[in-house]
Design goal:
This protein is mostly helical. It has 4 helices and 2 strands; from the N terminus they run H-H-E-E-H-H. The protein has a two-stranded antiparallel ribbon. The chain is rod-shaped.
């Protein structure tokens, strides 16, 4: 019985070491992921400003081109096959997210019209590139934030539930082993007294008589 209890104690002690080391690793991961999330948010703020500025510039040139050439001509001046967005991925602590996004225009844009129309086409292309870059970093920030929340949840579960449960189990096992040790010591004293021809309390009884 004592051997079983000691084996259980060793098992729980090993689990406690694993859990405490796990908390340290999760805390480290949380710091790194939080720093990356903060960096992405700051980057997103910058790209949002650039996108809003590019969108306003594109709108201004579109209005000018529409006033000169007409909205049908403006719509027809776009690339015939649209555009393709290419996304490169990066990662931090095992979390993948968009690290870079670029726009590739498919087909040659139509030419002709006023200079305002040409400027509108260029401004719109820049606005699309800015929008794609902003969308990519916002998606990256969302992915990293989700991992940050998950890491915090796992750390708290280990720190505030698993470790206390293990510590309670270990304390219970220690109490049981202490009780077994006291019982074993008592049996040894009784056995020694029996071999000596009396009980552990026999000498006191004879003295009192």
């Amino acid at each position: 019985m004592a051997d079983v209890g000691r084996a259980a104690r060793l098992r729980v002690q090993r689990l406690l070491l694993i859990a405490r080391h796990g908390v340290e690793l999760l805390e480290r991961k949380q710091r790194i992921v939080a720093a990356e999330h903060e960096r992405l948010l700051l980057r997103a703020d910058d790209l949002q400003v650039a996108w809003e500025r590019a969108a306003a510039e594109a709108r201004t040139w579109a209005d000018r081109a529409a006033a000169i050439d007409g909205w049908p001509a403006l719509a027809a001046a776009g690339p015939p096959s649209g555009a393709l967005v290419r996304v490169e991925t990066g990662q931090v602590m095992g979390v993948e997210f968009p690290s870079h996004a670029a726009v590739e225009v498919l087909g040659r844009p139509r030419t002709g019209g006023s200079s305002a129309l040409a400027h509108a086409g260029s401004a719109m292309a820049e606005a699309v590139e800015a929008a794609v870059a902003y969308a990519a970093v916002r998606r990256a920030a969302a992915s990293v934030h989700a991992e940050l929340v998950a890491t915090r949840t796992r750390r708290r579960a280990v720190e505030h539930r698993w470790i206390p449960d293990l510590e309670e189990d270990l304390a219970r096992i220690e109490r049981a082993l202490d009780e077994l040790e006291r019982e074993e010591n008592l049996r040894v004293r009784w056995a020694a007294g029996a071999r000596g021809g009396g009980s552990p309390g026999g000498d006191r009884e004879r003295t009192a008589s």
